[in-house]
Design a protein that fits this description.
It is built from no helices and twelve strands. The protein has 127 residues and is mainly beta. The strands form three sheets. Strands 1, 2, 5, 8, 9 and 12 form a six-stranded antiparallel sheet that branches. The mean pLDDT is 94.
């Protein structure tokens, strides 16, 4: 896992890693990475860029900010996307602590395998 913040931009990257591939049941989701991010009052957390490679095209990558309703899902196993998706819009009047979750979703009707080399990179902005 790698984390870099410059100004209000946050770069987050990760890889499945480990010693063996991970079997994921039909229509199941597996959490790959979790990080805590603070979002100030009147500030947004925006997913600017997503680059990912999941070697099995049955997998989608899911980016969500809990407890906010912000979710972004990209299908097809690989992509270099510029979603500009607002994951959090803090209108509470106080700072929020968000759990940013990166997961792989098996969209197939049978068990599929995540490779140890499957990876992702996100560029987020607090604005």
């Amino acid at each position: 896992m790698s984390f870099l913040e410059v100004g209000m931009l946050i770069q987050l990257s990760g890889i499945v890693g480990g010693n063996t591939s991970i079997a994921v049941g039909a229509r199941k989701t597996v959490l790959l990475q979790q990080i805590v991010i603070r979002v100030k009052s009147r500030q947004k957390l925006i997913l600017r860029n997503l680059n990912y490679l999941l070697n099995n095209e049955a997998f989608a990558i899911k980016i969500e900010a809990e407890p906010s309703p912000g979710v972004f899902i990209a299908r097809g196993g690989a992509g270099d996307l510029t979603p500009n998706k607002v994951l959090v819009n803090n209108t509470t009047g106080s700072e929020l602590t968000i759990f940013l979750l990166i997961s792989a979703v098996n969209t197939a009707n049978n068990t599929r395998t995540l490779s140890r080399s499957d990876s992702w990179r996100l560029l987020l902005q607090r604005k």
